[in-house]
Structures are given as structure tokens and as C-alpha cells.
Design brief:
The chain has helices at about 5-20, 35-45, 45-55, 70-80, 155-160, and strands at about 25-30, 65-70, 85-95, 105-110, 120-125, 130-135, 150, 165-175. It folds into two domains: about 5-80, Membrane-bound Lytic Murein Transglycosylase D, Chain A; about 85-175, Barwin-like endoglucanases (Beta Barrel), CATH 2.40.40. The longest helix is centred in the N-terminal third of the chain and has 19 residues, at about 5-20. It is an alpha+beta fold.
């Protein structure tokens, strides 16, 4: 899978997840003659915020298109100014937590990613991918010295792993809070 496509997918996924999690969403249906600029002025929302919350690649709009307009857009914009985001691409090794009791959830323990972080994990041997959510820190024990991430049984199985430890590539967004 192309790395640029993976990065774009991660960004769109995070924008999509953010829009789903917002509670008070309003929508605006595009009418003839409206532009992104006119809509941003109407709702007093910066154009770049309007573009990012809707995952717009350019300023082209279509009649009948539905745009998310939310009071929380300005809160998201303020929050993003306070936080610095960095896309991390990390190579390493993964293994299974080994418990089938986790069901069909795609979960992970990671050495440095924060709890709640969404990570795209790609098996470098066969290009299989899975998206997991970090649920805790990977303990620094002898058995974890060789791995960067441990995946739930379902997530590890999704990667079609042949061995107990496999080479992987992880992509995720790391946010640093500004003071």
C-alpha cells in the first residue's frame, strides 16, 4: 500500500472520527452561488477549519453537498492551536497479547503512544493492515524487549502473521500540548 495513501487515509479517518464524536453538529446544504468563503463568513468559521472538519481537498463545492457546521468547530480550531500534531511512522516488531478473550476488538499495548491513540499497523511481510486503538502502555519486561507493540489476538490474526513476532510499520498521530 502506498505510504502517501496511508497518511491521507489516517488524516481522513481522524477527521471522520472527530466529526462523529462531536455532539452538536449542524449541517449546511450548499445552494447555487455559495462559496466556501461565503459560508465561512455566514457561520463565522475560518475557511481552513471548515475545510478540515469536512475533509475537503480543495475549495470546490457542489449544489446539494452537505457541510458540517458546528459550534464545536471553533473549539476544535482553538484546541488544534494549543496542540502540535506530528504523524509518526515507526518500524519495529509486533506480537500477540495472546489472549483470545479480548474478542473481536482490535486493541494494542504500545511503548510510547498515549492511551486512545489510533494506530495503522502494516505487516511488512505480506502488506496486511489493521487499525488498532492503544489501551495501555507496553510493560518493560524481558519478553517485551524485542517488540514495539502487542496486539489483541483478533488484530494479530488480521495481519495474517506466520510467526509469533513479525516486522511491522506503524503510522499514528502524536499530539504534543503547547504551553
Amino acid at each position: 500500500m502506498n505510504l502517501k495513501l496511508l497518511k491521507k487515509g489516517l488524516i481522513f479517518f481522524l477527521i471522520f472520527l472527530n466529526s462523529i464524536l462531536s455532539n452538536a453538529q449542524e449541517y449546511h446544504i450548499i445552494k447555487k452561488g455559495e462559496t466556501l468563503f461565503s459560508i465561512s463568513k455566514l457561520y463565522e468559521i475560518p475557511i481552513d477549519s471548515l475545510s478540515s472538519i469536512n475533509g475537503l481537498v480543495n475549495n470546490n463545492l457542489s449544489i446539494g453537498q452537505k457541510l458540517i457546521i458546528s459550534e464545536q468547530v471553533t473549539q476544535i480550531e482553538e484546541k488544534s492551536k494549543k496542540n502540535k500534531s506530528t504523524t509518526i511512522i515507526e518500524e519495529g516488531f509486533a506480537s500477540s497479547i495472546g489472549e483470545e478473550s479480548s474478542g473481536d476488538k482490535y486493541l494494542a499495548l504500545h511503548k510510547s503512544a498515549k492511551v486512545g491513540t489510533i494506530i495503522f499497523v502494516k505487516n511488512q511481510m505480506n502488506e496486511s493492515m489493521v487499525i488498532v486503538r492503544v489501551i495501555g502502555k507496553l510493560p518493560e519486561t524481558g519478553e517485551n524487549d524485542k517488540v514495539n507493540i502487542k496486539l489483541s489476538h483478533a488484530a494479530f490474526k488480521k495481519l495474517n502473521a506466520v510467526d509469533n513476532i513479525i516486522p511491522i510499520e506503524m503510522t499514528y498521530v502524536y499530539e504534543e500540548k503547547k504551553n
